[in-house]
Amino acid sequence: EKQMLSFDGRVAVVTGSGRGLGASHAKFLASRGAAVVINDLGGSAQGTGASATPAEEVVAEIVAAGGRAVANFDSVTENPEAIVQTAIDAFGRLDILVNNAGINQARPFGPDVLPSIRQHMEVHFFGTAGVTAAAWPHLVQSGSGRIVNTTSPTLIGFPQQTPYVSAKGAIFAFTRTLALEGAEVGIKVNAIAPTAATRMSDEADISEEFKQFMRDNLPTSLVSPVVAYLAHQDCAINGEVLQAQGGEVQRLVLGFNTGFTSTDLTPELIQQHLAEILDPATHVPFEQVDKQDLGAVGK
Ligand code: NAI
Hints:
By secondary structure, the chain is of the alpha/beta class. 40% of the residues lie in helices and 15% in strands. β1 (11-15), α1 (20-31) and β2 (35-39) form a beta-alpha-beta unit. It is globular. The two termini are 39 Å apart. The site of 1,4-dihydronicotinamide adenine dinucleotide (NAI) has 33 residues, from α1, α4 and α6.
């Protein structure tokens, strides 16, 4: 039996941890010894309003259980430096950043959709990129910095969700490519694609049956162990995205298939060889593709 993965002496920031998945991650890390900054703006699931109550309640719960936590109420989009500074002021260092804060609005695509796309990009993508940038020098200094981002299984496509899914796609790409720079300075950058019953899922535009299924079967507590593994100094993977729901943990892969090749390529050849080009049986994960074929992308 391996020794329990402890977070004694480690300091974590979990954004959006006043509720839902973030609160669960923060409590789990604190229960294993981490000192945690509970950051939460405290607004609605759609991204309006603000309140100190959610973050304060999670801090009180952690402290009552004998853990260490402080609250921060800044928006990840507006004041990322202050969120990181809260960790430095309270605990003197930063080892772990869990980018979790998020909003969700269902919006059919059309001329009116752009403000919602911008808002989702602001909170999810610029929030993630901004807090990560502020944290980076401290994570380098940690010597084993860990970043856990939050993307979504909706990456495969979800109706009426171009704002949300586009922002989650940006986080996916950010994770994959920042991992390359992290590797040079001892930082591991991974992501989760969770599904769990929360306020956000309760208010989402999905069937009441699936909401009930989530409440019965997909608790946030079955996602947080995955976050904790990726946040631990012994984490052995980098640039990966793990889908997590109801106890299942799966690798979400960016890949290519064998496809079709011709140096006399024509639109007609594409038409004739579509079955090969789309063949799921020849899929290989990204890192098994001959990198020389990818030029700069695979370097
Ligand atoms: P939630 O709505 O219960 O919690 C999100 C928290 O983020 C809230 O407490 C909110 O106040 C906070 N927040 C929002 N904007 C913020 C900002 N600008 N600055 C600081 N805090 C902010 O939602 P849930 O479900 O716990 O979501 C957590 C993350 O997981 C999100 O990134 C979400 O997109 C993602 N996710 C959730 C899924 C689910 O099934 N619940 C599925 C896939 C992804």
